[in-house]
Amino acid sequence: MKRKPHNIKVVFKKLREARGYYTNDPQLIEIDKTLTDLELLDTLIHEFTHHLQPYLDEDVVEMIGNEMSAFLWRHNYRKIQ
User: Fold this and answer.
1) Distances (CA, A) of 55 to 18, 24, 26
2) Mean pLDDT of 46-67
């Protein structure tokens, strides 16, 4: 199945209340710039899951982010500077 590209802008800034946010209009993910690499991975997956599956409950989105980031981290995913 061919999908349209995701044109989501990702912005890093200091956030106070959460590690990240997703908004649909405009399509934007905001990420707290102080996160560790593992927290960043978890938060990117979490917020992108909100984009892909907006009908999911928050607890399901949280579980997906936690499980996927833990799996990738165990398999040596690391952010390249």
Assistant:
1) 20, 13, 18
2) 96
